[in-house]
Amino acid sequence: MYLLAANLVLLVHLLFIGVVVLGGLAVLRRPRLALLHIPAAVWGFLVEAMGWYCPLTDLENTLLRRAGEAGYTTGFLEQYLLAVIYPEGLTREIQYVLAALVVVINAAVYITLWRRLRHPRHPQHPRRPTP
């Protein structure tokens, strides 16, 4: 049961990372999602820029240990998803680059959104002839 829970947390972790990096694209279609995306993007930036340890990582490792695992060494999900979340050779310099990418990608999305909201496209309606 703990192994299943650890795998579910790992999936949530991966989805959260996806939201941080690409969630702004959903905001372009549904601007209200910014209320969820902005805090997630800020958190993702801070974790990378400050070298913080995400609480989901602690939870994953705790659940894996309770399942009798050493942590991220066995199982399908660990084998294929951990390298995405925790790539080998991850250095502080790479984390700074990742943090910058989060900012650049999301800044581009929100600038685009701001421009759309500021200058909405109106479909052209044919002018009625004046009598």
Descriptive overview:
Keywords: Membrane, Transmembrane, Transmembrane helix. It comes from Desulfovibrio psychrotolerans. This is DUF2784 domain-containing protein. The chain crosses the membrane at residues 6-28, 35-53, 94-113. The protein has 131 residues and is an all-alpha fold. The protein has one domain (2-118). The chain is 72% helix and 0% strand. It is built from 5 helices and no strands. The mean pLDDT is 81.
- Overall average residue pLDDT: 81
- Report the total helices: 5
What class would the helix/strand composition place it in?
Answer: mainly alpha
Broad shape: elongated
List segments where confidence is low: pLDDT < 50 over at least 5 consecutive residues: none
Pfam families: DUF2784
Protein name: DUF2784 domain-containing protein
Keywords: Membrane, Transmembrane, Transmembrane helix
Task: Provide a compact summary of the structure.
The protein is an all-alpha fold. The protein has helices at 2-29, 34-50, 55-66, 76-85, 92-118. The protein has one domain.
Helix-strand blueprint:
Elements: H1 2-29, H2 34-50, H3 55-66, H4 76-85, H5 92-118
Helix pairs in contact: 1-2, 1-3, 1-4, 1-5, 2-5
Give the key terms.
single chain; mainly alpha; transmembrane helix; DUF2784; DUF2784 domain-containing protein; transmembrane
